[in-house]
Amino acid sequence: MLFKNLSFLLFIFIFSCSNYRSNNQEQSPRIKSLTKLIIPKKNEKLNLNDSISIKINPKYDSIIINEISIIYNKDTIAKSNTNDITLKLNIFKSVGKHRITVVSFLDNDKKEVHYSSLMIYPTEVPQKLKYMIKNIYPHDPDAYTQGLTFDGKRFFESTGRRGFSTLREVEIKSGKIINQVNLDKKYFGEGITVYKEKIYQLTWESNLCFIYDKNTMEKIDEFSYAHEGWGITTFNDELVISDGSENIYFINANNYKFSRQIQVYDNSGLIKNINELENVNGKIFANIYGKEEIIIFSPITGIVESTINLKGIFNKKNYNKKLDVLNGVAYNSVEKKLFVTGKWWPSLFEIEIIN
């Protein structure tokens, strides 16, 4: 009799526990997540003008979501006391891949964290600009050109290759070198720019930017950065640096601290091999390494707005000496003139955009 009573009690206990689990949908201890993130698909092309829905759904009826928030670059950019948020994408300000963190706060004093990325593209196709050659000037055929820039009417050039890297001031019309600084053979010179009373010259893989007095061309300082150095220009009070990828880095020109970053995209996707940079009236002109092409993009959004196809600007058929790729773009803001050349090219071209 005792055995039967114990069996009956055991049956009631098991049935009750089973029924409790069924009613409350308790999860297995192996299930780590109590919620599911609902967001646009990974490869979905979004636009800065879009608004999207981001939702956190509970996996069980017993789970109550009190609040969700979205974090971007350590800042909370949106918050809701429901389980969904409508997010305006113009909060990101720029195109490209943006990684966000979605945090859900649950009724049991727990929180769950989901990570995702949003791909934001431009919608407009870049305008194709045409140009005409205004003048052709001699250029040192031994100059492995990495960067060109103006300060007023003064023209500066940076050349590369270890053991041959230089910073030089050049007379435009004759190609004559007025003054030259030779870099240590361990450095590979890259892009240059001028900000206030200083010239800034990047190095390729040494993660160093050399700083010179623009009047004496004497080296006075340097700072380091965490990526390769390819091209450099200025935008307001920032140094703008490329590293051969789609990424553009902005560094405070007064304290040399990193301030922000954008990615350069056209309507088809990211633009790689961004090289020499030049600020022309608030837009960034950039050489694409390996192509005879200049892209023009916004330093705010990263959107490619225009392109200039320079293919064939230099007639290589009549030139038997060594040549490398198009590289070097400079704008004389005083005379409103635009110049381009290439590595080991014997000519410097003054061009005018005609549309």
Tell me about this structure:
The chain is mainly β and 355 residues long. It folds into two domains: 32-120, Immunoglobulin-like; 127-353, Neuraminidase. The chain is 6% helix and 51% strand. The chain contains one helix and 30 strands. The chain has one helix at residues 2-24, and strands spanning 35-38, 51-58, 65-72, 75-80, 84-88, 96-106, 111-120, 127-129, 131-138, 145-151, 154-159, 166-170, 177-182, 189-195, 198-203, 208-213, 219-224, 232-235, 238-242, 247-252, 258-263, 265-266, 269-270, 274-280, 283-288, 293-297, 304-309, 326-332, 337-342, 347-353. The model is unreliable at 1-30 (pLDDT under 50).
Question: TL;DR?
Answer:
The protein has 355 residues and is mainly beta.
CATH architecture of the largest domain: 6 Propeller
User: What's the quaternary structure here?
Assistant: single chain
Number of strands: 30
Side by side, the strands of the main sheet go 8-27-26-25-24
Q: In the CATH hierarchy, what is the superfamily of the largest domain?
A: TolB, C-terminal domain
Question: How many domains comprise the coordinates?
Answer: 2
Rounded mean pLDDT is 90
Shape summary: elongated
- Going by helix content, strand content and strand pairing, the class is mainly beta
CATH topology name of the largest domain, in short, is Neuraminidase
Portion in beta strands: over 45%
Helix content range: under 10%
Report, as a whole number of angstroms, the end-to-end distance.
102 Å
- What is Rg? 29 Å
Spans of at least 5 consecutive residues whose pLDDT stays below 50 are: 1-30
